[in-house]
Amino acid sequence: MRYSNIQGCSAVLRTLSSSTSTNSCVRVAHTSGTAEPSTSLGISDDGAAYLSPELFKEFSVPYLNKIYEAFPGMRGHHMCGAVEHQLGVYSEDLKITHFSAFGYCVDPHVAAEKLGGRAVMSGNVDPQLILNGPPSRIIEAARHVIEAIAPHGGFILQDGANICPGTPIENMRAMLTAAEEYGKCQRVVKRSSEKA
């Protein structure tokens, strides 16, 4: 579907994001039944896979940043779709600090290049592979992800994204085996904030 009134769409999004009801929701979320206000937030945004980086910057980034700014601290972002084309936007425009349960369809080398050392990443092992095995292939897939991302620091081995009902426990053990065998890695890439 193509929208012919892009300015109208932008006007609606601006109105919604600046409305009294949105601000009330932010106030409620800050307290969420606790004495201390919440200081971090995770957002799930699977729709980003369907937008170009330009449209994502226009229609999502300003509003996502407004939400993140209401919760200073961790900027978590979940996206389990094919989102390689948005990783630069996540890093530079949204300044995410956590890329949670990211999908198996993202090349881990691209994720490492765009977010390595700048965001904690978790995910990327194909849930269907974890379901169907065999354990040797699961271990190899997990090793591939670990070797691509872990040297940058801040990687958590995880499914990418969901464990399917009926997944055999031995296949889950294969993930644990890979983490124990290949997950102890010396960080070799300096974070962007560190001086050479």
Question: Can you describe this structure in just a few lines?
Answer:
The protein is α/β, with parallel strands linked by helices and 196 residues long.
Give descriptors for this structure.
12% strand, single chain, 5 strands, 9 helices, TIM Barrel, alpha/beta
How would you characterize this protein structure?
This protein is of the alpha/beta class and 196 residues long. It has a single domain, classed as TIM Barrel, CATH 3.20.20. It is built from 9 helices and 5 strands; from the N terminus they run ααβααβαβαβααβα. α5 links the parallel β2 (75-78) and β3. α6 (108-115) runs parallel beside α8 (135-149) and α8 runs parallel beside α9. The longest helix is centred in the C-terminal third of the chain and has 15 residues, at 135-149. It is elongated and about 50 Å long.
What distance lies between the first and last C-alpha atoms, to the nearest angstrom?
48 Å
Strand content range: 5-15%
Number of strands: 5
Number of helices: 9
Give the tally of structural domains.
Answer: 1
Classified by CATH, the class is Alpha Beta
- Give the CATH topology: TIM Barrel
**Average pLDDT metric:** 83
**Fraction of residues in helices?**
40-55%
Radius of gyration, taken over Cα atoms and rounded to an integer in Å: 19 Å
Shape: elongated
What CATH architecture would you give? Alpha-Beta Barrel
What order do the SSEs take from the amino end to the carboxyl end, as H and E? HHEHHEHEHEHHEH
> Pairing-aware structural class of the strands and helices?
alpha/beta
Q: Major beta sheet, specifics?
A: 5 strands, parallel
**Numbering strands along the chain, what is their spatial order in the largest sheet?**
1-2-3-4-5
Ranges with pLDDT <50 over ≥5 residues? Answer: none
